[in-house]
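Exercise (ungraded).
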Amino acid sequence: MRRPLGENPYQLVVLVLLASGLLLLALGGYLSPLLNTVLRPVQGVQTWLYDRFQAVQDFLNAPADIARLRQENADLQAENASLQTEIISLRQQVSEIELLSALLDFARARPENAYQAAEVIGRDPSPFLHYVMINVGSDAGIRRGMPVVGQEGLVGRVAQVTANAARVELITDPASQVSVRLQPSNVDGVLVGSITGDLSIALIPQDAALGAGDLVFTSGIGGLYPGNILIGQVSSVRQEAQALFQTASVQPVVDYTRLEIVLVITNFQPVDLTPLLSPEEQELQ
Amino acid sequence: MRIAVGLLLLLVAALFQVTLMMRINLLQGSADLVLLVLVAWMLRPGTRPTWIWGLPAGLMIGYASALPDYIPLIGYLAAAGICQILHTRIWQVPLLTMVSATLLGTIAVHLTTMVYLWLSAQPIDPVEILNLITIPSMLLNLILVLPINALIGEVNKFLSPELDPA
């Protein structure tokens, strides 16, 4: 009968020596090629089994996952839409704040004037005229003839008023005439609008020295507008030898096609020159 | 009922005209939504194509515009009259009638305004007006003829399905 392993002291010593040898060989890295060779097929089998098991598990759990993902997707889409709306709203608010801030700067630069802010709510339906409608009227103290300014400069004047709205004649309207002064040449002229919306200055004396780039301000002459409100810049000058006056084209500082919020100067009283005019001139007025 | 709906359509068109359409420009021209709705509504089966439709359209635009009230009134009455005449002449081809009425109506409305501006001694250059306002406006109106016609057709179909099967 064979004796159990270990009871023979020689066998035990041999086993210990063998184990120690293997351990030393393993620690020394001499067994790695052998182990790699043996374990590589085992790892391959293990990977294959794990992938298949995972696939089966995914297949079994799929309906629940799809429903959950769909719900999550719908929630995220709703949240995304809500955030997009909020972004648009905030951008609009930022834009409005910037506009109001610019208007406030304009008003602070002229503390002698009282202002009423107004929103542009419509435009004249005729393409031949240049009028806008604003959302304040006589209830807010708006009166006919009051000048209207934007963040950059002169916009026009109130032409017609109702209780809650008013119609503003832009300075680009063909019927509009504004007394202006050019700087630095210090020359006076009359700014007139046109059907196409272009601005030009008429009645500039022939001997006046002006050039492109001169700034155009209201002169205050005539009493329809306060003085020193910026209108634009001279873009070109037309001088004809036979003509009595020069004319100049003006590039306005205000973009009249994008007016959103304007300020009505409420403490300016336009001077009514009608009694001084002849009956024919009154008819033309 | 049809009259009330017609008036409501014109009112909505006038509101859109003042708030939206005047911001969409081609050169200096803009589409005339009121004219388009007026013409499209007059030419629908079931609506009596009479020049009287020009009256509310003209009054609405006259109220909204800085022009004297009678100027748009004359313009839109003329446009409605043209539409009425064309409807009796070329009634077999509604789309052709609509396009012709839109073009002639645009000319009528613009011509009336031009005459007023000329009489009120405002500087006007007819060639400039034609190039920068009238032709671009006609082009925009032509672009909108079909959508407006379809829209008004839907409203008409809703009102009287038996009259407007298209």
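Further reading is listed at the end of the chapter. For now, observe: Chain B touches chain A at residues 14, 17-19, 21-23, 25, 28-30, 32, 34, 61, 64-67, 72, 110, 113-114, 117, 120-125, 128-129, 132-133, 137 (CB under 8 Å). The CA atoms of residues 78 and 108 of chain B lie 6 Å apart.
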